[in-house]
Amino acid sequence: CELRSTAPNFTVVTECVIDAVCLAVECAKPIRITPILLVGEPGVGKSHYTAELSKCLGVPITRVDVDNLQVGAGLSGSSYIYANSEAGVVFKVLSEQGHISPLVILDELDKAEISYHGDPLGPLHNLLEPVSARGFKDASVALPIDASHVIWIATANYLRRIPATIKSRFEIFEIPPQSRATKEAIVRGLCEEFKKEYLDIEFSEKVVSALIDKTPREQRQLLQRALARAVRLGEAIVCLDHLEQVAPDDRKR
């Protein structure tokens, strides 16, 4: 699995997933992975890792911004008795994506807030337990569906902000900061991805070096903008000049 080399600070997580996949293959059954909670400071690569993991598994991925959830209906739907009833995330991904084991990312689980509207994490008490998830009912449909094979991965910066009853349902992995070698591997991986996805264009070593200390999100954004600038100028190599044109160094501003 390429994740072993491109995301070495997630190695323990990767091995856990590989074990689950091997078991599923050996038993000829759908993948079932214990819900995973990735805890680490911003910039360790949690979002990048989950995106790459979905590609390795070949499953669709859906991201849920937990800080935008106000009530549990976001996950489990609103009651069908209301005119504006709407299905929740779980029903939508299972019915629309046509896969029994979609990957659902709960981004920033530690930012969920209980309000007078309700508890946005409430449905997780049942959804994260295989037995109860097997008979999950979306409130807008009220028909049981099997959600026990959904792959759940949550991310958080601070473990202490997550309710104990939710934490207990996850296997928790504390992710260490990336080494410089890991950051470089991610940049090079992004360069290869852009070469395949867009054009067979080269990226100079100076561009790679300039992006090593950026977060994975910044690396992707800046590489894409520098690539677009190089293409606009009719050049076959993305060089440091292109990068500085779209994101000039603070000293030159």
Model description:
The structure is a single chain. It is built from twelve helices and nine strands. It has 253 residues and is of the alpha/beta class. It folds into two domains: 172 residues, Rossmann fold (3-Layer(aba) Sandwich); 73 residues, Helicase, Ruva Protein, domain 3 (Orthogonal Bundle). Strands 2-3-6-1-7 form a five-stranded parallel β-sheet, with helices on both faces. It has a two-stranded antiparallel ribbon with strand order 4-5. Strands 8-9 form a two-stranded parallel sheet. Helix 11 crosses helix 12.
Low-confidence runs: none
The CATH C-level class name of the largest domain: Alpha Beta
- How many structural units, i.e. domains? 2
Taking Cα atoms only, what radius of gyration do you get, to the nearest Å?
Answer: 21 Å
Range of strand content:
5-15%
- Give me the CATH fold name of the largest domain: Rossmann fold
Number of strands: 9
Strands in their spatial order, largest beta sheet? 2-3-6-1-7
Q: Kindly state the percentage of residues in helix.
A: 40-55%
Indicate the CATH architecture of the largest domain: 3-Layer(aba) Sandwich
| Biggest sheet details | 5 strands, parallel
**CATH superfamily annotation of the largest domain:** P-loop containing nucleotide triphosphate hydrolases
Give the termini distance in whole angstroms: 42 Å
Query: How do the helices and strands follow one another from N- to C-terminus?
Result: HHEHEHHEHHEEEHEHEHHEH
Helical segment count: 12
Determine the structural class based on helices, strands and strand pairing: alpha/beta
Shape: elongated
